[in-house]
Design a protein that fits this description.
The chain is built from 20 helices and 6 strands. By secondary structure, it is mainly alpha-helical. It catalyses: (2S)-2-[5-amino-1-(5-phospho-beta-D-ribosyl)imidazole-4-carboxamido]succinate = 5-amino-1-(5-phospho-beta-D-ribosyl)imidazole-4-carboxamide + fumarate; N(6)-(1,2-dicarboxyethyl)-AMP = fumarate + AMP.
Length: 459
């Protein structure tokens, strides 16, 4: 019987287990075993096609059966491998023995069983399996989640493109923008970060104990093992791994691509931390309300509260994700001499790091779906901030050579409560063309938005 999620040590497998159902089969230990089986099967089939007299090409039936071991890999299969590992105390060897056990009823495969894991070091299997895990997680979970956020934010940017909003620089009132333009800024940044994640090449090596094909060359010295390994690594799935070949390594693949990948994910997360804090602030100002859920409680003592918990949860989990991602990025490219084991236990936490990120994306999506614009609060702030028009007035004054334009507006506005009448009186006194006076007199904080609406619609 599976233990209750209440007893889980990590909230990823406890409180938030349901939100990570798509990631768990890929980044769990079962997912790791699944990819190891895939690598071993691909290597075995490729060896049968290499032209060796001692290993004839497999029959179509045998190939279908082997690929079925990968396609139909189940939790029961993972449990069986764990049972073997109790004896071997070696996880990769347990996978090898499990595969060989599946050959028992098939004479063709049983006769060729010694070619399972042939000339491989454990890291030939592990490094490619990790790359396959990251490949699947990126394609099936991470990029779709980010794409969903980008599209939601893009839709909001377009819908709210013309809604004026008071800006705040240094926490103080500043030139107005629009709600849509501020969201468009996030869309552009997040979309660029998403592309950086997608562009990282995922590498794999299949070159033996210290990267020199030593055992391979001992078996068949005239065979081009490097070309063979490249073909296995780069051939698309299911007959290959669909990765980028790494020609130079020690016993382990150097993990530089992993650092690049984790840094790219962390960069996207940082953008979302920035947005989480901004939207939290906008909710605090009353610019956004949040849709209520029946029965939901905001505070145990204050019945009126509707807390921005989804954005707070997103920010918190993004922080956890980035702390782990940065450690992975900094640690994994470092290995003593040709190999030490410090990377092995750390790599088992890739799913935890990505899990917190995916959990945050989920919370962010829920939070965005709850937002409702509060136009009254936006308008009230703008109507109380006529001082922001000091900028356009003094800029027009400068255009027409009015001396001391900045200083005159500073005297009228800095540190003061400014009313429309104060600015209109100054405008009427200016020695500038009447048409310009009329244009400035017609301007309000709500209309002084520059190209914000256009920029928002264009994103």
């Amino acid at each position: 019987m599976m233990p209750s999620t209440v007893s889980a040590l990590s909230p990823l497998d406890g409180r938030y287990a349901g939100r990570l159902a798509a990631l768990r089969p890929l980044m769990s230990e079962q997912g790791y075993m699944h990819k190891r089986v895939q690598v071993e099967v691909c290597w075995f089939i490729a060896l049968s096609d290499a032209g060796f007299a001692e290993f004839k090409p497999l029959t179509p039936g045998a190939r279908t059966y082997l690929l079925g071991l990968v396609k139909n890999f189940s939790s029961a299969d993972a449990d069986a491998i764990k049972e073997i590992e109790k004896t071997t105390n070696h996880d990769v060897k347990a996978v090898e023995y499990w595969i060989k056990s599946k050959f028992e009823a098939r004479p063709e495969l049983r006769a060729a069983s010694e070619f399972v894991h042939f000339a491989c070091t454990s890291e030939d299997i592990n490094n490619t399996s990790h790359a396959l895990q990251l490949k699947a997680a990126r394609e099936q979970v991470i990029l779709p989640a980010l794409d969903g956020l980008v599209e939601k934010l893009r839709s909001m940017a377009h819908a709210l493109a013309e809604v004026p909003m008071l800006s705040r620089t240094h926490g103080q009132t500043a030139s107005p923008t629009t709600v849509g333009k501020e969201i468009a800024n996030v869309v552009v940044r997040l979309a660029a970060a998403r592309e950086r994640i997608a562009a990282v090449k995922l590498l794999g090596k299949m070159n033996g104990a210290v990267g020199n094909y030593n055992a391979h060359m001992a078996a068949w010295p005239e065979f081009d093992w490097e070309a063979f390994a490249r073909k296995v690594v780069e051939t698309p799935e299911p007959l290959g791994l669909g990765l980028t070949f790494q020609p130079y390594s020690i016993q382990i693949e150097p993990h530089d691509y992993m650092a690049e990948f984790f840094d790219a994910v962390a960069r996207a997360n940082t953008i979302l931390v920035d947005w989480s804090r901004d939207v939290w602030g906008y909710i605090s100002l009353g610019y956004f309300k949040q849709k209520l859920r029946e029965g939901e409680i905001g505070s145990s003592t204050m019945p009126h509260k509707v807390n921005p918990i989804d954005f707070e949860n997103a920010e918190g989990n993004l922080g956890l994700a980035n702390a782990l991602l940065r450690h992975l990025s900094e640690k994994l490219p470092i290995s003593r001499w040709q190999r030490d084991l410090t990377d092995s236990t750390v790599l088992r936490n890739m799913g935890v790091a990505l899990g917190y990120a995916v959990l945050a994306y989920h919370s962010m999506g829920i939070g965005l779906g709850k937002l409702e614009l509060n136009r009254e609060a936006l308008d009230a702030d703008l109507d109380a901030a006529w001082e922001v028009l000091a900028e356009p007035i003094q800029t027009v004054m400068r255009r027409y050579g009015v001396q001391g334009a900045y200083e005159k507006l500073k005297a009228v506005t800095r540190g003061k409560t400014v009313a429309a009448e104060d600015l209109h009186g100054l405008i009427r006194s200016l020695d500038i063309p009447e048409a310009e006076k009329e244009r400035l007199l017609a301007m309000t904080p709500s209309s002084y938005i520059g190209k914000a609406a256009e920029l928002a619609r264009r994103v």
